[in-house]
Write a structure and sequence with these properties.
heterodimer; A: about 260 residues; alpha+beta; 5-stranded mixed β-sheet; 6 helices; 5 strands; B: about 190 residues; mainly alpha; 7 helices; about 80% helix; globular
C-alpha cells in the first residue's frame, strides 16, 4: 500500500463518519426547531381560544348583570318607591304614628339607596361614561353605606388609560376581590389604593383571616382566585396576591402601560 | 457533568504525562485509554439507568478484551482494537442518549448541555475509529506517516474539548442542573 492509499483508507471513512454524524445532528436540530415552532403555534392557538372563551363568558356575565341591574331599577326599585309613597301617605293619614314609623322609613330609604347603587354597580354604563375611578368610588360609597366595614380609598386624580374591556375587567376583578375579602376572609377593614394612568396599579388590602396561597391555588376552593389571575392575564394585567394566614391579604393589579 | 469534568481532568493529566515523558509512553496511553473509555461508559451509566446492566456487561467485556490484548501483545503496543471496540460501543450509547434528549426535551435542544457532550463524544470517537484501526499497521510499516496520521486524533481531540467546554458553559445556570439530573423529564 502506498502512502496515498493509506491516507485515503483513513481519511475517506473518517469523512463518511463525520458527514453521517453531522447529518444526524442537523436533522435533529431541524426537527427540534420545527417542534418548537409547532408548540409555539399550539400555545398561541390555546391562548387565542382561551381569550375568546373568556370574552364570551365575560359578555354573558355582563348581559346577566345588565338584566339584574335593569330589574333592580325598573322592578324592585319601583316597588320600594311605591312602598315609600304608601308609607308617606300613611304618615299623613296618621300623624301620631310618625315617630313609630321613622325607623321603618330610615331602613326603607337606605334599602332604596342600596338597591340604586347596586343597580349602578352591576351596570357598566357608568363605567363607560365616567371611568374606573368613578366606578370604584361609587362602589366604595355603597360599601360604606352598609356601615359594617371600614373602607379607605386612596388615589390620585388620574383616570387610568385603559381600553373599554380592560376598564370593565379591572372593575369586575376589583368587585370580586372585595367580595372575597368580605365574604370569605371576613375582613372588617379594607384599604384600596389606585395610582397612575398609563402605568396603572390598583391594590386591595384587607385585614381578614388570610390564607395559604400555595394551598389555596391547589385546592378546588381556589378556583375563583385562579380565574381572577387568568382573566387579569388575558386582559393584559399583571396580578399578584400576597396572603398570609391570619394576617389578611393584598391583591395587586398592574398594567405597565404601552 | 462531574463525571465529564473528571474525564477532562484525566485527559489533561494524560496529555501532560505524555508530553513530559515523550519516549516510550505507550504503556501509559494504554492505561489511559481503558480509564477514559470506562469513564465515558460511567457517564452513560449515570444518565441512562434503564441500560445499567447492558453498560456493566459491555464494560466487563471491553476490559477483558483490553486485558487480553495487552497480555497478548504487551503493554508497550498500542491496544488499538479494544479502543475501536470501545469507540463503537460509545457511539451506540451516545447516539441513544442524543435521541433520548431529542425525544424528551421540550425546549431548544441547542441549549441543552448534554447534547453537546453527546456531539463531542460522537465526533471524537466516531472520527478517530478509522485511524485507530490502521494506526498500529501504519506505525509499524511507515512510522513517519503514522506520526502525521495521528494528527487526525489531535484535531478531533481539540474539537472534543471545545464542545465539552461549551456544554459546561451551558450548564453554568442553576436551572440547567435540573435537566442534567432528569434529562428525560419534559420541561
Amino acid at each position: 500500500m502506498s502512502d496515498i492509499d493509506l491516507i485515503l483508507a483513513i481519511l475517506i471513512p473518517t469523512l463518511i463518519i463525520l458527514l453521517l454524524i453531522a447529518g444526524v445532528i442537523i436533522v435533529i436540530f431541524i426537527a427540534n426547531r420545527q417542534r418548537i415552532q409547532q408548540e409555539v403555534k399550539m400555545a398561541q392557538m390555546e391562548v387565542g381560544y382561551e381569550k375568546e372563551l373568556r370574552a364570551v363568558e365575560s359578555e354573558v356575565q355582563e348581559q346577566v348583570m345588565q338584566n339584574i341591574s335593569r330589574e333592580l331599577h325598573d322592578n324592585i326599585g319601583q316597588l320600594l318607591t311605591f312602598i315609600h309613597l304608601q308609607l308617606e301617605r300613611h304618615k299623613m293619614d296618621a300623624p301620631e304614628q310618625v315617630a313609630e314609623l321613622k325607623s321603618i322609613d330610615d331602613t326603607l330609604s337606605t334599602t332604596i339607596q342600596q338597591v340604586k347603587l347596586l343597580g349602578r354597580s352591576l351596570n357598566n354604563d357608568m363605567l363607560e361614561h365616567h371611568g374606573l375611578l368613578k366606578g370604584i368610588e361609587q362602589e366604595v360609597v355603597r360599601l360604606k353605606q352598609l356601615k359594617q366595614y371600614a373602607i379607605v380609598f386612596e388615589h390620585d386624580e388620574m383616570e387610568p388609560t385603559l381600553n373599554k374591556d380592560q376598564r370593565l375587567m379591572a372593575f369586575r376583578i376589583f368587585q370580586e376581590v372585595i367580595n372575597n375579602a368580605l365574604k370569605h376572609s371576613r375582613a372588617k377593614e379594607i384599604k384600596i389604593d389606585m395610582r397612575g394612568n398609563a402605568a396603572f396599579r390598583l391594590s386591595v388590602t384587607d385585614n381578614g383571616k388570610g390564607f395559604n396561597l400555595e394551598k389555596m391555588m391547589g385546592s378546588a376552593g381556589g378556583m375563583g382566585l385562579r380565574n381572577i389571575i387568568k382573566r387579569a392575564n388575558l386582559a393584559g394585567f399583571q396580578s399578584n396576591i400576597d396572603a398570609v394566614e391570619g394576617k389578611g391579604c393584598t391583591f395587586t393589579l398592574e398594567h405597565k402601560g404601552i | 457533568m462531574k463525571l465529564v469534568l473528571l474525564n477532562m481532568f484525566l485527559s489533561c493529566c494524560a496529555e501532560t504525562f505524555g508530553y513530559v515523558f515523550r519516549n516510550n509512553n505507550t504503556w501509559f496511553y494504554n492505561i489511559y485509554i481503558i480509564v477514559n473509555i470506562l469513564s465515558w461508559f460511567g457517564v452513560f451509566y449515570v444518565l441512562e439507568q434503564r441500560y445499567a446492566k447492558a453498560v456493566v456487561v459491555t464494560a466487563i467485556v471491553y476490559a477483558t478484551l483490553w486485558a487480553g490484548y495487552v497480555i497478548k501483545d504487551g503493554i508497550n503496543v498500542l491496544a488499538n482494537l479494544p479502543m475501536v471496540y470501545g469507540s463503537a460501543i460509545i457511539l451506540v450509547f451516545y447516539f441513544m442518549l442524543l435521541l433520548a434528549i431529542f425525544r424528551f426535551y421540550n425546549g431548544n435542544i441547542s441549549r441543552h448541555p448534554l447534547l453537546w457532550v453527546c456531539i463531542a463524544t460522537l465526533l471524537y470517537y466516531g472520527c478517530s475509529m478509522p485511524m485507530f484501526i490502521l494506526l498500529n499497521y501504519v506505525i509499524r510499516e511507515r512510522y513517519e506517516l503514522g506520526i502525521h496520521i495521528y494528527k487526525i486524533n489531535l484535531f478531533f481531540s481539540i474539537i472534543h474539548s471545545f464542545l465539552l467546554a461549551y456544554s459546561f458553559y451551558l450548564a453554568r445556570k442553576p436551572h440547567n442542573i435540573q435537566f442534567l439530573k432528569q434529562p428525560y423529564v419534559r420541561h
